[in-house]
From TrEMBL:
Keywords annotated in UniProt: Membrane, Transmembrane, Transmembrane helix
UniProt-recorded name of the protein: Glycosyltransferase RgtA/B/C/D-like domain-containing protein
TM spans (from-to): 9-28, 68-97, 109-129, 135-152, 157-173, 179-199, 220-242, 289-311, 318-336, 342-359, 371-387
Source domain of life: Bacteria
Organism, scientific name: Pedobacter vanadiisoli
Coiled coil regions, renumbered to chain: none
Length: 523
């Protein structure tokens, strides 16, 4: 691989995109879907076919950037568009990472390790074929970290300004990364300290001199605040404006985080990601709790240990690694009952590549080709073990599906396909009253929103009061369904309608849902 961007990187990225598409098609046709992808598909379907406020739907759906990209690809195919976007996005991430090491003196075998990771690492394959927004999170995280490292080398405000843009885009791909602002301040302080011209170069001596000299202390404080303001003025302003938008349209500034109509994780974090515990040996030995979370990260990304050795004499780069560890521990404290998705772990692998890309000299790059590739192979094994012990059911489901493809075993189809297959046979003239707060999976699997009447449409409340005049079917949760409390249509709705003299006959059901046929028996 030459030092300049060449056609070979583009060609390999394109072939990698085709590789991801092939696996994604096998999973998609086999009935394996991620809930985030179905959420994006359902919102795109409502935007194309539903009688909804399009500006409100696009403006309030979160995460914003992955949804918009998925909606753009929906013109090529509604159901497959999130998967198409994630496959393309992961290939773009590969292109960005490989391009960043093109001038490295060890670029050839560094490139080989990156290629092996993107082709065989279960987490990267999961991001590419699931339609989740993880690919976009990793892209902007990597670009943000690279900009920070470039600022370390050049000490110019340009890279800090670019980092601010990437950080804003990162937040609108995953809001939890906004808490990273708390842990960047010590790094900026240390960088500002390093740039101060004092008699002694030892960091502790510099701190002592800066704190005891008025002019140096004033310069240090001013520079630290200036850099911090440049990085975080844009993301903080963007968050405030977005919260004002939510407050104006819905009366709730946190609507984009807490409403199941705007954010699929509002339900998932209280159901799937809350109540499931891993039953594997690794999960029992290293559970996802405080402090042991760091052990799980090191098991998932052993490349970290190797990168800490590279920069053992450059403290500011070590601080970046430690700040991300503290950030992860903070997330576990802030959200103690919600398990951390795998893309937060994978961010450490991207951080390792950013560290290596900035190790330009032989003096600081203390490792050999064989040692590096051995760790890459070891990382594939530890990633499989970590994902297999994951507390997030969807990650284990996709890992099991990938193993089934390798072993050429039949895939286990999603349970909601039973209902969606039945609904596809219903005439388009017969409407279905549904609440997309929790029924978005069934609407997405049906492939069209035309037959559904959802709360975002003007006639929903009238149909809820007198469904006979508007629809022929009612989609409601079962009494034992964990999704029941998050929607308007449940067993209480069915009882209320029966009191009004409306006959409801079940025609199809699965684990969580019943499709009722509506008939008016009131005399």
């Amino acid at each position: 691989m030459s030092a300049k961007p060449n056609k070979s990187i583009c060609l390999i990225s394109f072939l990698l995109f085709g590789y991801y598409l092939y696996i994604a098609y096998l999973l998609y046709s086999g009935g394996v879907h991620s809930k985030e992808a179905l959420f994006f598909t359902e919102k795109s379907a409502l935007l194309h076919e539903g009688d909804v406020d399009g500006i409100k739907l696009v403006g309030l759906t979160f995460p914003q950037l992955p949804f918009i990209l998925s909606w753009i690809f929906s013109f090529l195919g509604m159901g497959f568009s999130p998967v198409l976007a994630s496959a393309l996005g992961t290939s773009v991430l590969f292109f960005i990472v490989t391009t960043s090491i093109r001038a490295h003196q060890y670029r050839n075998w560094l490139f080989l390790g990156i290629l092996i990771t993107f082709m065989f690492h279960p987490a990267f394959i999961f991001f590419a074929v699931s339609g989740k927004s993880s690919y976009m999170v990793l892209i902007f995280f990597y670009l943000f970290v690279m900009s920070i490292f470039r600022y370390f080398r050049t000490n110019t405000s340009y890279h800090i300004s670019v980092a601010s843009i990437y950080f804003t885009l990162l937040i609108f791909s995953s809001f939890k990364f906004s808490w990273l602002m708390l842990f960047i301040l010590p790094i900026i302080f240390f960088v500002a300290l390093q740039s101060m011209i004092v008699a002694n170069n030892d960091p502790m001596d510099k701190i002592a001199i800066a704190l005891n000299t008025n002019s140096i202390r004033r310069k240090l404080v001013n520079k630290t605040l200036a850099v911090y303001l440049i990085i975080f003025a844009l993301p903080i302003t963007a968050i405030l404006i977005f919260r004002m938008l939510n407050q104006t349209y819905t009366g709730d500034a946190d609507y984009y985080l807490n409403s199941p109509y705007a954010n699929y994780s509002a339900i998932i974090d209280q159901t799937d990601n809350l109540n499931n515990l891993a039953d594997s040996k690794l999960g029992r030995i290293f559970p996802e709790v405080h402090f042991l979370l760091t052990v799980r990260i090191l098991l998932f990304a052993p490349l970290l240990l190797f990168c800490l050795g590279i920069f053992k004499s450059i403290n500011r780069n070590i601080f970046v690694v430690f700040s991300l560890f503290f950030f992860m521990e903070f997330l576990k404290i802030k959200y103690p009952s919600v398990y951390i998705p795998i893309h937060f772990y994978t961010a450490f692998i991207c951080l390792c590549w950013a560290l290596i890309a900035n190790a330009k000299s032989t003096r600081t790059l203390r490792f050999s080709k064989h040692f590096y590739l051995s760790i890459i192979i070891l990382q594939l094994v530890t990633a499989y073990l970590t994902m297999n012990s994951s507390h997030v059911p969807e990650e284990k489901k996709y890992l099991g599906a990938l193993v089934s493809i390798i072993k050429q075993k039949p895939l286990e189809r999603d349970d909601d396909e039973i209902l969606s297959s039945y609904i596809k046979r219903i005439s388009s003239n017969d409407g279905i009253l549904a609440d997309d707060a929790n029924a978005y999976q069934i609407i997405a699997l049906t492939g069209s929103a035309k037959i559904f009447l959802t709360p975002g449409e003007n006639s929903f409340l009238a149909a809820l009061a007198q469904p006979v005049n508007h629809v022929s079917y009612l989609l409601a949760t079962k009494k034992e369904s964990e999704y029941g409390p998050f929607g308007l249509l449940n067993t209480n709705t069915v009882q209320t309608l029966r009191v009004k003299g409306i006959s409801l006959n079940p025609v199809c059901s699965n684990k969580n849902w019943i499709l009722w046929r509506i008939k008016n028996e009131k005399k």
